[in-house]
Design goal:
Elements lengths: L1 E6 L2 E8 L2 H16 L10 E8 L3 H19 L1 E11 L2 E10 L13 E2 L5 E5 L2 E9 L1
Antiparallel strand pairs: 1-2, 2-8, 3-5, 4-5, 6-8, 7-8
């Protein structure tokens, strides 16, 4: 599950999941739900493999979202499905989506950057929860 929340001139993303793999997958979906008004219009036509190194969860989430932002900015790639495996040394993922097609994809926010402000990843009562603020 993911949801957004308002934060000054930015937008926050709050994610909850049963395990870290699901948390990072939901973070990817939540992130791209900001780029396009209806994530359901994005078809899983193309798969990309992504690897991110890191052993601290907050920085791993930061780097994960930055990698997804890079994919959008450099390839105009919208992603909607994520298979993520988090380990002690980082994560590996397969993400599926398609290039932006302005005739079918109605754009939402323009995410400029992922920020460290308010960045948290923690386990609460057996569930994982993360929050991140995005500069729009």
């Amino acid at each position: 599950m993911y949801e957004t929340f308002e934060h000054t001139a930015d937008v926050g993303l709050r994610i909850e999941a049963d395990d870290l793999d699901e948390l990072f997958a939901e973070a990817g979906q939540g992130f791209f739900s900001l780029f396009v008004e209806d994530l359901g219009t994005v078809e899983p036509r193309q798969a990309v493999s992504i690897e991110v190194a890191g052993d601290e969860l907050e920085y791993l989430l930061f780097d994960w979202l930055n990698e997804l932002l890079y994919r959008f900015e450099s390839q105009r790639l919208l992603l909607r499905e994520f298979d993520v495996a988090v380990s002690d040394t980082g994560l590996t993922a397969t993400a599926r989506g398609e290039p932006l097609d302005e005739s079918r994809h109605r754009l939402g926010f323009e995410v400029k950057a992922v920020t460290y402000h308010g960045l948290t990843v923690k386990q609460i009562d057996g569930r994982w929860r993360a929050e991140v603020i995005l500069d729009i």
